Amino acid sequence: MPTLTQSVETQKFLDTVQYSHKGIHKYELIFGEGFISTGGVTTTVHLCEKYLDGKLPENPKILDVGCGIGGGSVFLADRYNATVVSIDLGTNVINIAKERYASKKNVSFAVEDAFFAEYKSGEFDMIYSRDAFIHVAEKEKLFNLFYKWLKPGGFVFISDYCCGEEAVLTDAFKAYVAQRNYSLTTWQNYERFLTNAGFTAKGENVTEWFRHILAMEKERLLEPKMKAKFLETYSTEEMNGLIAGWDEKLVTTTQGNHIWAVFFAVKE
């Protein structure tokens, strides 16, 4: 379990580097209003249709861990007539979410490290997270908490970055992981961590779909209207940096370095 000092250090990294106010605005411009992770509402709709629709009870209670600026939480609340408790370690993203969605009475937002959260046993029907545990080294300990907080029959749904086996990882990919302060593992290990926590878990490697989304986002930025809108606020250098990032991911996903996976895990 991380110490409070480690939690504060991760929070500082998120607020000053990855999700600074400028970074949030830039990500939202690319991923769409309310979203700061891959595919935005496009991937959210697809994942709900494929994995979640028809599996939740009436008026469910959902915990969204790593909620970002709140678009996904509000989407879940509206789609499933749910009460959504949304937490994130980043103060910038939570402040934006609170201001933007103040009128959504069935969605709450709080700055919270899930390791230090205090929820009741059996409180939630679903725990949901999108690409948020990339900074979490002790995933299995986190999943033990999830198991406790879920009702019997409740489930966890996660999408997240993973990596290939150590033997295939390039120095360039290792440097990328270190620069982002990521803690990645294989999708098979990820699935095993969920199983060890007590879940009936199934992981799925969806990297080919991830590659499609990356290419789509790159193409959208290069469309004349979007490019002009981007350059009203950001420099050509920043735009080229985003393009280089997509190109790099398209290479590392082909090499088996960078994996995107989804996990559905049920508390029987």
Strand content: 15-25%
Biggest sheet, strands in spatial order?
A: 3-2-1-4-5-7-6
**What is the general shape?**
globular
Radius of gyration: 18 Å
Proportion in helices: 40-55%
Query: How many H/I helical runs?
Result: 11
The chain-level structural class is alpha/beta
Q: Outline the low-pLDDT stretches.
A: none
Largest sheet: 7 strands, mixed
Average pLDDT value? Answer: 96
Write down the secondary-structure element order: HHHEHEHEEHEHHEHHHE
Number of DSSP E strands: 7
Distance between the termini: 25 Å
Q: Can you walk through the features of this model?
A:
With 268 residues, the chain is α/β, with parallel strands linked by helices. Helices cover 50% and strands 19% of the residues. The chain has 11 helices and 7 strands. The protein has a 7-stranded mixed β-sheet, sandwiched between helices. Strand 1 (61-65), helix 4 (71-80) and strand 2 form a beta-alpha-beta unit. Helix 9 (207-222) runs antiparallel to helix 11. The model has no long low-confidence stretch (mean pLDDT 96).
